[in-house]
User: Fold this.
Amino acid sequence: MVKNGEFYMIREMRKRGMSITRIAQEMGRDRKTIRKWLNKKEPESYQRKVTRLGKLDPFKDYVRRRMEEGCLNARVILEEIKAKGYTGGITTLRVFMKPFRPTVISKTTVRFETDPGYQAQVDWGRFTVDWHGKPKRLYAFVMVLSYSRMMYLEFTEDEKLDTLISCHHRAFEYFGGGTEVMLYDNMKTVVKDRDEQGHPVWNERFSRFASHHGFLLTSCRPYRARTKGKVENGIGYVRKNFWPRVRAFTGLDDLNRQAREWLNQVANVRIHGTTHVRPVDRWHEEKLKP
Assistant:
């Protein structure tokens, strides 16, 4: 017999357009059982027992709406519905959200650990926003200290060299210094080209900037940007955890104010999934160059 919870889950999945075969796979039931219960209006036990509303039930419409808006992060949604009165836990929420999540197959990233103060990784993320009624591209500058995973985030309107250098200055100020080595992908503002042996030809002005601040330039090998895994993960974390929190902003200054609050109150004080230590705590061990 299908339990009441399974019955409603089956109907929710069908309501979202999932096929009977897919529902059967997700629920671990055969297709005949799924088809049978989709044809029923109520579970068999309904007449014998009054079903109490679950803690999440009053919030399911809100959860569905947030997922349709693109927020798939259970922790972000948990914070929002708790503010609205939800008293349950995250497991119940994740179980409800699971059937509606897109299936993502990710490639394995080889992880390299570095000494304190040795390396930082830099990259740009791209976000599209509604800017006074028109779509506009914004760019997220992300720098991650490889040892501590301490992160700096800043949104800009372009990826030009002047902007890149200015973002570096503010990142160094935020961290209290810089590392010995900086790792980049093949962004044109840093790597102009590659010679016949595949060695990077650095942008001359940016190379002078690096020399002035005392750090060495390194870049990912072509088609191997996944070696820059820490900052790639950082951009993914921004996209999944910060961006869904941004409901409205009055301009770039307001957006960056929200980003700074998120860095200080969420990103850099959470228990990191790889190090199992808060980035801000390992940051105190970083030996940064002033």
